[in-house]
Structure to design on (284 residues):
């Protein structure tokens, strides 16, 4: 895995500065993300029941819980795919409820998917460039007519995508079609596509699923580099316990839609409710 450093003026910080300049970061000193009493129901099923927690800036938060605990439901609430009936989610000082789902990337929330969402017949570099779309100002017509500013914007998107190709150690496959690449490499391309939107918060949905031991080790280091070098907060839904416990600053555990524990990895790992949720009985 590459140790390439992104320039000090990390592009990831740019949208945050822009939002701050626009006076939108009401809670600039507060948490990056505040989940407040989220309740989500599907008919008679309560998938989330009053879940609350805060997440600090530039931190990694691991969201764990047994099957059906509500992790994906919460993840989908954070990206506005699911609309909750009660509660509030505040990102970077802004209530998410004020914004439609398609604005999430503009707002600074990037995500990956359990089932990769890539264009298999496009190159690695072009797939990553697709992620820049929300940071470009010129519309379709400007591009079609090659109006002034389009070329400069295109050059900037290209430059940023190349930086991410280096950061993710994808240089050797940059011009290859994504569909030809092994699963682990495609997962890194998807991460690149999400990073290309310069998010302040990156939502990773089971990023270790399907990876081999060495790839999980690389992912661990990459998550730490994303936090420290790109200064991006990461919310991680993951079943791979050693990855979550090794990389998270804070862990939130759910069971049957309720938060059962919150704290440092070692606190949550030892918590009786967590042990019971995973093992099916309380520790002796
Ligand atoms: N679209 C949906 N329609 C109906 N019920 C749903 C839907 N999505 C989730 N649920 C229900 O909500 C509850 C929480 O599911 P969720 O997928 O969020 O759990 P999870 O913790 O992500 O589980 P897993 O680890 O197996 O992915 C479950 O009872 C599930 O059956």
């Amino acid at each position: 895995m590459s140790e390439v450093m992104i320039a000090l003026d990390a592009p990831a910080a740019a949208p945050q500065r822009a939002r701050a300049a626009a006076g939108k970061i009401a809670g600039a000193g507060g948490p990056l993300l505040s989940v407040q009493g989220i309740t989500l129901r599907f008919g008679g099923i309560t998938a989330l029941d009053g879940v609350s927690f805060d997440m600090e800036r530039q931190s990694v938060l691991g969201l764990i819980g047994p099957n059906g605990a509500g992790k994906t439901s919460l993840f989908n609430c954070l990206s506005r795919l699911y609309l909750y009936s009660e509660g509030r989610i505040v990102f970077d000082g802004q209530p998410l409820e004020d914004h439609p789902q398609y604005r999430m990337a503009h707002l600074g929330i990037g995500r990956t998917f359990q089932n990769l969402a890539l264009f298999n017949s496009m190159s690695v570099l072009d797939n990553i460039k697709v992620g820049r779309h929300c940071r470009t100002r010129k519309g379709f017509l400007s591009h079609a007519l090659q109006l002034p500013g389009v070329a400069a914007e295109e050059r900037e998107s290209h430059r940023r995508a190349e930086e991410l190709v280096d950061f993710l150690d994808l240089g050797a496959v940059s011009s290859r079609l994504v569909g030809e690449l092994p699963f682990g490499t495609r997962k890194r391309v998807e991460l690149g596509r999400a990073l290309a939107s310069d998010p302040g918060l990156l939502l990773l949905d089971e990023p270790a699923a399907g990876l081999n031991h060495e790839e999980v080790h690389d992912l661990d280091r990459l998550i730490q580099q994303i936090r420290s070098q790109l200064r991006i907060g990461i919310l991680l839904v993951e079943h791979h316990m050693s990855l979550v416990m090794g990389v998270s600053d804070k862990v939130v555990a759910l069971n049957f839609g309720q938060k059962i524990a919150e704290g440092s990895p070692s606190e949550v790992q030892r918590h009786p409710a967590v042990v019971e949720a995973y093992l099916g009985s309380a520790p002796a």
Notes: Residues 10-24+31-108+201-284 form a domain with the Rossmann fold fold (CATH 3.40.50.300).
